[in-house]
Each structure stands twice: as C-alpha cells, then as structure tokens.
Design goal:
19 helices; seven-stranded mixed β-sheet; alpha+beta; Ku70, Chain: A, Domain 2; Rossmann fold
Length: 703
C-alpha cells in the first residue's frame, strides 16, 4: 500500500490575464442605510466584483477550510499565471497559511486590462504546477529516509485546480494535452534526480468562470481518464455565489468532508438586547463524524437537506441548552476539527467565541416523536474547536458481560471510581511541535504512550479481584511505583508503607478480602495476608526494570514478608491444633449419639441376666446362717458404680466392677476390714468393755 494520497499536494493555478478583470455582473449593495437616509442624499451605486476577485476569494475560502480541518500534511502551492508564472508559496509547512497567501496576492495586484492578451496565458501556470508537483515535500522526504528499504512505497500524487476563463471545449482539451506532455517530460527529468520525484498520479480540475447573464462556452464534463497518469474534469460555473458554492462542494469531495448545520441557536439581537432569535450555523468537518448515521440508516431522521439543486447536502442537528462547565466525561467515539462555512457571519462568530471560552454544546437529532437523542457535542481543546461524536446507539459499556456468572449476568463491582482517577491522571492535551522539546527527550506523544503503558501493567478491573487497591494503606506505594524513576523521598515513602503493612499483620488487623463465590467467612487471617503480600509483590515486580530504587522497594517487600523458621513452625502447629479442635467439635455429637445407643443396649442385656439369676436364687433356698455359695453371680443391684461413672460408662469399667463384686463373694470378709476406721482396723475391740479402759494408738491405757 503506497503512502501519500492525491490530497497531500494541491496546486492552485489562478488565471491573471486581462480578461479576468471583466465584471462578474453580480451586484453588491454598498448603501445599507436606506431607511435612515435623509432626503436629498444620493444613494451609493451598487458595485460588482471582477472575475479575478471572485476567483481569489473562493480559492482563499478553499484554503481556509482545508487549513482549519487539516492543519498538517495537507499542502497547497498557489500559482498566479499571466505573461509568466508567479509562485506565491512553497511546500514547506511554514508557508501553509491564509495570511501568507493573502499577503502575496496583495503584492500581485489585480490583472491589468491594458495588457496584451496574446502574451498572457494560463499555460505558464499549469507548467509551473506540474514542475511543483515533482518537488519533494518535507513529509515525503522524511518517509523516504525512514523507509530506506521500501522507499518505493512513498508515492508522489497530487491535484491541480485551475481557475480560468476558457474560450471553448477545444481550448480545454488543449490545456489537458499541455499538462499531459509536461508530466511526461518532468518524469524523465525526475528519474535521474534525488531532489525530484516522478508523478504517479495527477488530477486536473478545470473550473471555467463566466459572468452572470451570459451563456457558457464550455460544457461540464465528469472525471475521465486522459492517460494512466492524468485524470481530468471540467466545471463551468457562474461567478459570484455560485462559484463559492462550487468550491465549497469541491473541498468536501477532495478531502472527504461533510456538512452539519446547527439549528435553533439562541442569540440576542443587536438592536434589541432583551429579545433573542434562533439562528443556524453550518460547519464543515471530516465525514467520519456522520459514520453512525450511515451505519444505522438514520440520516434521513437527522434532517438531510440539499442546496443548489441537490449539489450539496448537510445534516441538521439541534442546539441543546449548554452547561456552565464541562466537568462531565462523555463517551465519545471520535473528535474532528470543524470549520465554519461562513466564517465572517455574526452567528458563526458568536458560536466560535462561545466555544473558545470553555463552554460545551450538546447537539441532538431532531425527531418528530420519541425521546431526545444526543448524538454530538461541540467543545474546544487547546484553542481549536472539535465536533465530538457521542455514542447514541447501544453501548457495550451499558450492559457488561458477566465474568464470574456466565452469560446473561452482570458485573456490578467494576472499579469505576478508580478508573475515573486513572483517566484524570492520563489526560492528553495538544502541544505545539517544538524541535527543542524533541531534542531534549522523547516526543510528547511517545512520553504519553510510555506513561499509559506503565499505568496499565497491573490494573485489575474488578474490586473482588484485588486486595491492595482496596486498602488505603497501600495508596502511597501504588501511586509512586508507577513512576518512571523514584527519588530518595519516594523510596522512603514506599518502605514506610511496607512497614505499616507489617505492623498491620503483627496486630492481626482484618483485610478487605472479597468473599464472593466462597462459603463461610472466607480465608483465614494468615491466608489473607499471604494473598495481600503476593499481589503487592506482583505489582512491584512489573516496575522493577524502571530504576534501582524500584528494585530496593521489591527487596524491602521480600525481606519483610519472610519470617523466622520458629515463627512459621509455631504458626503451623497452631493451625494444626485449630484444625484438630474443629474436627473434634464436628465429630463429638456423632460419637456421643453412637456411644449412648451402644451403652443402653449393653445395660439392657445386663438387667435381663440379673433377673434370671435372681429367679434361680429364689428356687435354691439356703439357711440364714449358711454362707453363700462361692460360685453365686453378683446381682446388678450389687454393682456399685462410681459417682463419675453415672450415666454412659465404658465397657471396661463395667467389666472391672463386676469382677470386683464377684471376687468379694468368694470368701468371708475379714472382720477387721468391716469395722475399720479411716482404713485402719481397730484391735482389741472388747477390751474396753471388759476393763473399762480406753486404749490409744500407742498402746497406753488411760482412764
């Protein structure tokens, strides 16, 4: 794909021959005080402009619109032709201004009617225009130098607009043949030159100007291909307002522009300050500002109108009441420079001054029914007025797709406030191009791209996906770490922030951990801080390559989050103990239910066996003095359970108690153990009764 289109270079050739001094016959009234003029005063006679004046004014309007919409890379070379050619400016960007061209035209002056017409011809200017198109512009030279390996991609194409008064269609064909021959000659010369480039494509636009009231001698002809290098078209136009309209249409066609008319603009009347009237202002801009209308098919709803037999179309937008300040951020899909069609009219001047004072104007589509649709906005930036295209159709930001729930859901926890701060910190403003600024460092656009890249290396979009960006304690470090270089003070601030986080962990302060999608209370405190440290380390690692101080911040984080082995072991043991206690609490109810059921079954079997043994003992009756049989089984009532064992007891305890009772029945109990006091048997129990003596433990008797 070749670079530089036909619109990159435009050569204007204006005929300065004596016949261009002829009147256009369009009357211009100079006496506007018809009502207040007193009796006896002779009114001023109307005047008419010459063909030369009409051509100069219309061509200057063409240049003004081009410079307003495309301040760079769209170049014009203005040439005046009479007995010789006069080049009024060059392809340099410094010469591209209406002030420069008007000053040069003032030096040229009007055409001389007394000059010999045979010596004057527009051919001189056309030859000079072809030679000028072969010259290399600054932008072409820069592109060729940058693309040394693919320099053939830099194309040399241009357009020639010739304003003249042709004699006939034959005269027009002669002019086309002259341009064709000159292109072939210049291409041969440019083939062996480093300062010239051969022309690969040229468009010739011949505008035949004739006075009003006369019949044209030249017929209109659409664009046709004269050769592989040249295309030509012819326009026959009456001088005056018709010529201005034609060049206005041509500038839109040549540079892909469109027209928008702002209606219902309230303005105060000059004579009556207390009253106001509605005015209309037409603006020109790039066609992409109406791209949404073309896509949606709502162009007819926007009120497209035609002028001059349908040759020109404009989209009508309605004025909305402006706000006092433009603090709101609107969702814009594009911004395009504008140029008023009638720049000197009072409505256009009032509108531009209103916008340059910092105001913004919203524009809506006129609708017969339904809700109001605001589709555009006018606002100024850096002293230039832009037409902003607002998204009036359905936006992808209105109903965001679900990230965690799948199709059909909504995400409501976007970091909207943080994103607003992010946009405010990365706003772009136009700056003038300065060689000194580029020599000192990167261009402003490159610095802005680098800053945007640093700010977006780690930037979670959802609140539930981040921890550190929800903590006020991490804000100082997060704001400083994205800088290209850190000062010593910034390093101390980042280290202080890390120490504050360590202190928070020591105090066991809670963290804003999201519990979305998790059961219970979420992760434990140790796990929360582990997540926080991991995310903080990830953020700092993305900026470590910036400078040495960035690495020192990362080293501080790694040193602070690493704990002694004893503390880690102690925390592990504490976590294991907590896990065991939690498991015990969960299983205790289940174990107690199982054990109670098992013990009740065992006790039931023991009671039944006790009843059977009691029935057997009643059948075998022994004498009262005879001892019990040694093999007699103990009864259930005789099994004395300890106080602590009341209720559910283990099987081992029950078996031990039963064996103890059974062994006690196998022999006669020692009489001294039965009458023992404090687990000590008392000797000589009957001695006191016989002798009336009281014996103590030491064996001495007392009375």
């Amino acid at each position: 794909m070749k670079m530089f289109s036909v619109s990159h270079k435009t050569a204007f050739v204006v005929d300065h021959c004596p016949y261009m001094a002829e009147s256009s016959r369009q009357q211009v009234e100079c006496d506007v005080l018809t009502k207040s003029r007193g009796q006896g005063m002779i009114p001023l006679a109307p005047v008419s402009k010459s063909l030369w004046t009409c051509a100069v004014e219309c061509s200057m309007e063409y240049c003004r619109i081009l410079y307003d919409v495309y301040p760079l890379k769209k170049l014009i070379n203005y040439i005046v032709s009479d007995s010789e050619f006069h080049i009024l400016n060059s392809w340099r960007q410094e010469d591209q201004s209406t002030h420069e061209l008007m000053s040069a035209l003032a030096a040229v002056g009007p055409p001389n009617p007394q000059e010999d017409p045979e010596c004057c011809s527009v051919l001189h200017g056309l030859v000079a225009a072809v030679e000028s198109l072969c010259k290399i512009t600054e932008y072409q030279h820069e592109a060729r130098t940058t693309l040394m390996d693919t320099a053939d991609r830099v194309a040399n194409r241009g357009r020639i607009i010739c304003l003249t008064n042709a004699k006939s269609d034959t005269h027009v064909r002669m002019l086309e043949d002259c341009v064709q021959e000159t292109i072939l000659e210049q291409n041969k010369m440019a083939a062996g030159s480093d300062r010239l480039m051969p022309i690969q494509q040229c468009e010739l636009v011949l505008v035949h100007i004739f006075p009003q009231g006369e019949d044209t001698l030249v017929s209109d002809r659409p664009k046709k291909e004269v050769s592989s290098l040249l295309t030509s078209e012819v326009h026959s136009v009456r001088a005056g307002r018709h010529l201005a309209t034609k060049l206005n249409i041509l500038v839109q066609q040549h540079f892909d522009l469109a027209s928008t008319t702002i209606t219902n603009i309230p303005m105060k009347e000059e004579q009556h300050a207390n009253t106001s009237a509605n005015y209309d202002v037409e603006l020109l801009h790039h066609r992409d500002a109406h791209l949404e209308f073309f896509k949606s098919g709502d162009l007819h709803m926007a009120g497209s109108t035609s002028r001059d037999s349908g040759l020109k179309e404009t989209v009508t937008l309605k004025w909305c009441t402006p706000r006092t300040n433009s603090v709101e951020l609107h969702y814009c899909t594009g911004a395009y420079r504008i140029s008023p069609t009638d720049v000197n009219s009072r409505p256009s001047s009032c509108l531009t001054n209103f916008l340059l004072n910092g105001r913004s104007v919203l524009l809506e589509q006129p609708r017969k029914s339904g809700s109001k649709v605001i589709s555009h906005m006018l606002s100024s930036h850096g002293g230039e007025i832009f037409l902003h295209v607002l998204n009036s159709t359905r936006s992808t930001l209105e109903d965001p797709p679900s990230i965690s729930e799948g199709c059909g859901g909504r995400v409501t926890d976007y970091r909207i406030t943080d994103f607003g701060e992010f946009m405010r910190e990365n706003r772009l403003t136009p700056v003038p191009e300065s060689p000194d600024a580029e020599a000192s460092g990167k261009p402003p656009a490159e610095r802005a791209k680098a800053q945007l890249e640093r700010y977006t290396r780690y930037w979670p979009m959802i609140i539930s996906q981040t921890t550190i960006f929800n903590m006020q304690a991490v804000v100082p470090l997060a704001n400083l770490i994205v800088k290209e270089s850190l000062s010593e003070e910034d390093l101390l601030t980042c280290q202080k922030t890390v120490y504050n986080l360590v202190d928070m962990e020591r105090k066991n302060d809670p963290l804003p951990i999201s519990t979305v999608g998790s059961r219970g209370k979420g992760p434990k405190r140790d796990e929360q801080y582990r997540i926080m440290w991991n995310e903080l380390e990830t953020l700092v690692k993305t900026h470590v390559a910036g400078s040495e101080r960035h690495q020192r911040v990362l080293d501080c984080i790694i040193a602070c989050r690493s704990k002694p082995p004893e503390e880690d072991e102690r925390k592990k043991r504490g976590r294991k103990r907590e896990d065991k206690e939690d498991k015990a609490e969960k299983n205790i109810n289940k174990d107690s239910e199982d054990k109670s059921w098992q013990e009740s079954e065992r006790l039931k079997g023991v009671v039944e066996r006790g009843k059977e043994e009691q029935g057997e003992s009643e059948v075998i009756k022994d004498s009262p003095d005879s001892p019990e049989p040694l093999n007699k089984k103990p009864r259930l009532e005789e099994i004395q359970l300890p106080e602590k064992a009341r209720g559910p007891v283990s099987l081992l305890t029950m078996w031990t108690n039963r064996i103890t009772v059974a062994n006690s029945r196998k022999h006669q109990e020692f009489a001294g153990r039965i009458s023992s006091v404090n687990n000590k048997a008392e000797l000589y129990q009957h001695l006191k009764d016989e002798n009336g003596m009281d014996l103590h433990e030491n064996g001495k008797a007392t009375r």
